[in-house]
Amino acid sequence: MIKTIKASVIFLTVLLLFSNCASIVTRSSYPLTINSNPSNAEISITNRRGVEIYSGNTPAVVQLRASDGFFSRAEYQVRFSAPGYEERVVPVTFSLDGWYFGNILLGGVLGMLIIDPATGAMWRIDTDVINVTLRQSTGFVTPELRILDINEIPENWKSKLVKLD
Asked: Which of 41, 88, 99, 133 could form a disulfide linkage to 82, CB 3.0–4.6 angstroms apart?
């Protein structure tokens, strides 16, 4: 009888300790490494509501929360910009963490319905490194003054020439 009670106490203790599996094994915020070519590009990170949560230059390492509320995963946009280059936006998303389903195997209803959704441990980041190469802007032209001979210009320009006296 005492062995049965002892075994039951041990079983319940283990069950309670592992009732929030994803919270124990994973985390609720993740580091995101951001690099760009050219280096020192300006970056701005906004959440799904459009609120800027980070502003700086590359390279950078930023901690991002996995949750955007109870049972809601986070989504971010990283905007890259540099003079003479096209602006680029890269999404950062989170997916359901496999450890979250460990709650089913270990009987953690409390972990599955309250703890992991509240802490954000039920989500994991899809990528932890962003490497972006920015393209040079075609609209960014350095102004220049060139003098051309009449024989160097295209034929369709010649009809638009104005003779100066």
From this structure: 41
